[in-house]
Amino acid sequence: MKIIPSIAIIGGGFCGAATLIQLVRQSEFPLNIVLINKENQIPKGLAYSSFNERHVLNVPAGKMSIFPEEPDHFINWIRSKKEYHIFADDELPDTFIPRVIYGKYLEEIFNDTISNLPDHISVNIINDEAVDIDLSDSGNSVKLKSGSEIFADKIVLAIGNFLPDNPKIRDNSFYNSEKYFQNPWNRKAVEGLKDNDNVLIIGTGLTMVDNVISLTDIGFKGKIYSVSTNGYFPLSHKKRKPYTDILEELHPPYEISKLYSLFRKHIKIVLSKGITGEAVVDAVRPKTQEIWLSLSMEDKIRFMAHIRHLWGVARHRLPKNIFLQMQDLISKGRLEIIGGRLQEIKKISDHVLVTIKEKKSLNIKELIVSRVINCTGPKTDISKIDQPLISNLYKKGLIVPDEMRLGINALPDGTIIHGDNTLSTKLFTTGSLLKGILWESTAVPELRIQAKSLAGELISRLYSNKNANA
Ligand SMILES: Cc1cc2nc3c(=O)[nH]c(=O)nc-3n(C[C@H](O)[C@H](O)[C@H](O)COP(=O)(O)OP(=O)(O)OC[C@H]3O[C@@H](n4cnc5c(N)ncnc54)[C@H](O)[C@@H]3O)c2cc1C
Question: 6-162+380-469: what fold?
C-alpha cells in the first residue's frame, strides 16, 4: 500500500487555516492534512471571532486579502456581497472593516476549500488540544488532550498568541483575585460592571482601545484609567500620499544608530512638508524584516530598550473615527491615560487600590477601581509559558526561545532550530512565534506570505527530497 505524506497543523486561526488553504491550492500530489484546534473558532481564531461588531481591523481592507497572489481578493469579496454595499466603493481599499466581517470572509474561503477538495487531498479537522509532540525516525506524533495520537510526516505550530504576562508589582497575590482579568480578549473582561464602578486597563495600545469600545458600547458609565510606562496613546491613520524618499538612503549594512539618524532626518523632512512622521515608518515597513534579520544582537537589544515603544505607536494606529471617539472620552474625563509605573495593586474589601509612580512628576498616584484588565500584549518568552504543548516541547529541547525571547528559535522560513542547534526536518512554525526572528510577524500582510511560502516548502520537502522526510 502506498503511504500518503501527511502534515499536521496545530492551530486553526488565520495562520493554520491559511497554510492549509495554500497546501490545497499548491499541492499537485497526494496529501493528508490534519488540522488540530482548541478553543477559538476555525478559521477566525482569536482576532476575527471578536464579540463586538465595532471592533475593526487595524489594517485597511485593501491589504487584508488572504492570498498574497490575489491582493484584491478581500475587497472583491466585500464588493460581491449586497449586505456590505454600505462601504463606499471608491474608499473601500482604505476602509477599516469590522473584524467580524473579516471572520466571515475567512470562514467562507475555508469552507469553500474544504467542500471542494481535489481527490488527491484529504483534510481531517480535530477539535482538541495538542499537548505534546514526539519526533522520531520511526514516525512523528502529536499527542492530544483526549488521549488520541495523530501521526504526521511534518508538523506545523500555528498556535497564535499567548495571554499577557502579569506586570511586576510588589505583591502578586492580587493576580488570583476575581477583580483581575488577564485575558483582555474575553467578553467577560467587560461584563458585570455597575454604573459607579471604575476600571483600570493596564496598557495603552490597540487592545486597550478595543476594551474601551466594548465598555462604552454596553453603557458603562464609570471612569476608565489606562496606564503604561510611557503613557503613549495610539495615533490616528491619516490619508496621505506615500513618502518613499528614505528608501533611497536605506541600504545594508544596517546599524541602529545610523538608522535612527536617518529616521530623524526624514521625519524632519516630512514634518516640514506638513506630513506626519508615521509616513516614514510606513515607507520602511516592507523592509523591516530585512533590516531586523541583519541587525546585530546588541542593536536588537538597543531597539527593544529605547525605540520599540515609539515604533509601536507609529506602526499600530487607529482608524480616524475610533481615534476621535477616544479623544472625546478623554476630553469628557471618562478616559484618562497615565504614564507611569505600577507599584502595587491590592484588593481592599470590595475594591482595588492601585498605586502608580507617575513618569513625569514621579508623584505617587492612587486609584480606586473595581476591576483591572490586562492589555499589555501577549507574553512571548516560551520558557515561561504555562501550557502543556509549549512546556513539553521546551523541556525536550524541541523548541527553545530565540535570542530576543520573543518566540521560538527558527529560520526565517519557519524551520525550527532545536535546542541542540540542529535544523528540524519535521517541525515548523509560523505567525507570532517568529517575531524574534522577523520582527514583523504579526499582521495579515506578512502572515499570508508566510502561509504561502511555508506550504510550498512543505510540499517540496515531502515530494522533491524524500531524504528530508526520513
Ligand atoms: C484582538 C486582535 C486583533 C487583531 N487585529 C488584526 C487586524 O486587524 N489585522 C491584522 O492584520 N492582524 C490583526 N491581528 C493580528 C493577528 O494576530 C493575526 O492577523 C492573525 O489573526 C494571527 O493568527 P494566528 O493563527 O497566528 O493566531 P490565532 O488566531 O490566535 O490562532 C491560533 C489558534 O491555535 C489554537 N491553539 C493554540 N494552542 C493550541 C494547542 N495546543 N492545540 C490546539 N490548538 C491550539 C488557538 O486556540 C487558536 O484557535 C490582531 C490580533 C488580535 C489578538
Answer: FAD/NAD(P)-binding domain (3.50.50)
pLDDT digit string, tens, across residues 338-391:
999 999 999 999 999 999 999 999 999 999 999 999 999 999 999 999 999 999
Instruction: Please report how the helices 14-26 and 444-463 are oriented relative to each other, as an axis angle in degrees rounded to 10.
Output: 50
Kindly state if the Cβ of 130 falls inside 6 Å of ligand 1.
yes
Domain ranges of the chain: 6-162+380-469, 172-235+318-374, 245-315
**355-369: pLDDT as tens digits:** 999 999 999 999 999
How far is the centre of ligand 1, averaged over its atoms, from the C-alpha of 160 (Å)?
4
Output the residue whose Cα is nearest ligand 1's atom 2.
47
Residue nearest to atom 37 of ligand 1 (CA): 159
Q: Helix (H, G, I), strand (E, B), or coil: what is residue 99? A: helix
How far apart CA 392 and CA 50 sit, in angstroms, is 30
Ligand 1 contact, 442 CB (< 6 A): yes
Ligand 1 in reach of 58 Cβ (< 6 A): yes
**Cell numbers linked to 97:** 472593516
The amino acid occupying position 228 is S
| 469 pLDDT more than 80 | no
Domain 172-235+318-374 has CATH 1.20.1440.230: no
